[in-house]
């Protein structure tokens, strides 16, 4: 099979060098803004930061979306305006549902900073269906042990969200969603079925191919609807599978996402006016609203 037979589009990342680590962003892109409910896809690192340093994403707001943080290495301390304090570690999931509005911060834990913290993982944003965009904000931490794992000797797949290969993750979903972390040993393979409306594959590390077509690292490969395929690796690989129910496009401005442009304008006004709730224990600083529209902020 050829690229045209397999893929709707291949998205190359915009890479940001943030002084010590890189972020590769494939969604949103001009050519494609969403894959299923996924509208933001970042690979952070991998990197080892300098001893005594770390990441410090200051308090900032979100509306009408859910963020999903999944790490391969390192740790991040999450705090939010609900009063949540949670440490995300490799293989676990932090699902933060913004709904009508939430504020959160993400920082390297103090015990990690002394040795030089590791940073490696994926952060995604998921659009909420219009009927629940203004739901009450919520936070959910799913441990590594709670997520189902499928193994066949040469392939291991952890289901992060939704149902795949006959197993379902306990992570809350608001629309049809699939999300998985796939590890292929040398010579390993795994079928990718065609049930979801939209699906994409992202090669984080190693080498992999789909029906003989090689994948390039940090590209997001959006599979054609209805195409079933087999993912393979000769030397070993880590691949993320994401997608789900097709959704209407969303407006994205800075950290705000909504089906309504007017709702985003109201969120901009409210953040400028200091009307969002604060993060208990982390309220002395915040990220100001940018003068030029962006899709996300980093410190």
UniProtKB/TrEMBL annotation:
Name all Pirin N-terminal domain ranges. Answer: 21-126
Every Pirin C-terminal domain range: 179-276
Q: Which InterPro entries match?
A: Pirin, Pirin_C_dom, Pirin_N_dom, RmlC-like_jellyroll, RmlC_Cupin_sf
By its UniProt entry, which Gene3D superfamilies does this protein fall under?
Answer: Jelly Rolls (2.60.120.10)
Protein family per UniProt? Belongs to the pirin family.
Write the protein's name.
Pirin family protein
């Amino acid at each position: 099979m050829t690229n045209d037979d397999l893929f709707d589009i291949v998205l190359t990342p915009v890479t940001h060098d943030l002084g010590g680590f890189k972020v590769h962003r494939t969604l949103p892109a001009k050519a494609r803004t969403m894959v299923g409910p996924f509208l933001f896809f970042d690979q952070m690192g991998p990197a080892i930061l300098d001893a005594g340093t770390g990441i410090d994403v200051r308090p900032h707001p979100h509306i009408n979306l859910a963020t999903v943080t999944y790490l391969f290495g390192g740790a991040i301390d999450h705090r939010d305006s609900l009063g949540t304090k949670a440490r995300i570690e490799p293989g676990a999931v932090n699902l933060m549902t913004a709904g009508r509005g939430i504020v959160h911060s993400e920082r390297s834990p103090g015990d990690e900073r002394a040795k030089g913290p590791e940073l490696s993982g994926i952060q995604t944003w998921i659009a909420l269906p219009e009927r629940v965009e203004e739901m009450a904000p919520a936070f959910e931490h799913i441990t590594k042990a709670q997520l189902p794992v499928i193994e066949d000797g040469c392939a291991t797949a952890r289901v992060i969200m939704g149902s795949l290969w006959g197993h379902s993750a306990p992570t809350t979903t608001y629309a049809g969603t699939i999300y998985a972390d796939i590890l292929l040993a040398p010579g390993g393979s795994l079928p990718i079925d065609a049930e979801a409306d939209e699906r994409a594959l992202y090669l984080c590390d190693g080498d992999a191919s789909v029906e003989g077509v090689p994948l390039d690292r940090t590209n997001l490969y959006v599979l054609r609807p209805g195409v079933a395929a087999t993912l393979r690796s000769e030397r070993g690989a880590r691949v993320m599978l994401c997608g789900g129910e097709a959704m209407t496009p969303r407006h994205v401005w800075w950290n705000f996402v909504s089906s309504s442009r007017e709702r985003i304008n109201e969120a901009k006004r409210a953040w400028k006016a200091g009307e969002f709730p604060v993060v208990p224990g982390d309220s002395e600083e915040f990220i100001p609203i940018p003068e030029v529209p962006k899709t996300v902020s980093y410190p």
